[in-house]
Write a sequence for this structure.
């Protein structure tokens, strides 16, 4: 029988090569990006995508809102912009649309970008993995993480390389220069040091449900991690803002639950308290963070990145181990991560 998951395995374990290429793409396009932004004088940024790329938009918007001189950075699924444009497009000013799509062919995203240009009359910035796609072809600016292209249906290296390209772009616009390229080496080290833990947790079928918790940009990453677990393993997986979890969803926590915390620096004290409480309810806990914060962290499993990378650029580091955990669970359940149930690589209406 053909090996299951060969594409997904290669794409997860080799994704830092796509990160290096994404940083090189940004350096190559730095002047074009600076000019586009300076001439644009944008009042707001609206971000859209579908599925994984909607979640990427959720992770990116807080960085744009906090680092760039715009009134707001808002996120919507592409379908909302397409179907209810008046509820999504800012009423006045000169908004920029950031349309994010691995394929650049998802019908909702392509049509949403066209509707935006028609109704708002301002530019579209595309982030994709396919330079020959309609979305890229029709955009005013396109940054392409071409090494993120995948054979797999589920997004892994495409997501992290597009996220890094987008985060590094925001960093460039905020600080004038691209970030240095130390992040890929940190990703290699993480996979080397903690791949075994991710596999052990993935193969533990006594875990029946997963909750991924994140604050700020990490909420979008938590949504993406939950989607990987659903797509690859057909398991119950949900994402919540850290502080939201107590407001009802924690009623589902039991001894068959794994709570995964994507910890931040700013909200560390609040986040570690949530994890401590979930342990008292019987959950097993996995915490991922750059390093220890002020309050002690009580988690069953702990991954510190120790990357030295500034917080706005670290988002990609949360994902490879969670992708690998889902991959290993899929194989243990006899599923093929390369062929997720009911899904296609691109949703074309
Ligand atoms: C978006 C998407 C993914 C989903 C699946 C099908 O595609 O819906 O989010 O997980 O892979 O495609 P794209 O617009 O980013 O190409």
């Amino acid at each position: 029988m053909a090996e299951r998951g060969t594409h997904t395995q290669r794409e997860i374990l080799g994704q830092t090569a796509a990160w290096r290429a994404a940083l090189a793409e940004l350096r190559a396009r730095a002047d074009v990006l600076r000019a586009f932004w300076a001439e644009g004088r944008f009042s707001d940024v609206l971000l859209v995508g579908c599925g994984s790329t909607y979640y990427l938009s959720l992770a990116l918007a807080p960085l744009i809102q906090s680092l760039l001189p715009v009134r707001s950075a808002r996120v919507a699924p592409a379908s909302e912009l397409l179907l209810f444009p008046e509820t999504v497009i800012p009423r006045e000013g000169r908004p920029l649309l950031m349309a994010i799509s691995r394929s650049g062919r998802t019908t909702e995203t392509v049509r949403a970008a066209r509707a935006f240009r028609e109704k708002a009359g301002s530019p579209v910035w595309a982030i994709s993995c396919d330079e020959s796609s309609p979305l890229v072809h029709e955009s005013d600016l396109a940054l392409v993480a071409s090494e993120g292209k995948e054979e797999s249906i589920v997004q892994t290296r495409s997501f992290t390389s597009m996220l890094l390209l987008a985060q590094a772009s925001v960093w460039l616009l905020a600080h004038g220069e691209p970030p240095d390229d130390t992040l890929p080496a940190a990703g290699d080290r993480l996979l080397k040091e903690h791949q075994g833990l991710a596999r052990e947790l993935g193969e533990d079928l006594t875990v029946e449900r997963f909750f991924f918790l994140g604050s700020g940009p990490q909420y979008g990453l938590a949504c993406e991690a939950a989607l990987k677990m659903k797509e690859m393993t057909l398991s119950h997986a949900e994402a919540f803002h850290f502080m939201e979890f107590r407001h009802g969803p924690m009623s589902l926590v039991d001894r068959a639950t794994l709570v995964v915390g994507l910890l931040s620096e700013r909200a560390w004290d609040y986040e570690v308290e949530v994890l401590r409480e979930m342990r008292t309810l019987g959950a097993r806990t996995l915490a991922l963070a750059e390093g220890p914060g002020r309050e002690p962290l009580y988690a069953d499993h702990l991954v510190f990145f120790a990357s030295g990378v500034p917080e706005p650029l670290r988002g990609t580091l949360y994902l490879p181990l969670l992708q690998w955990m889902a991959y290993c669970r899929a194989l243990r359940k006899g599923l093929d991560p390369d062929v997720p149930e009911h899904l296609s690589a691109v949703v074309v209406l």
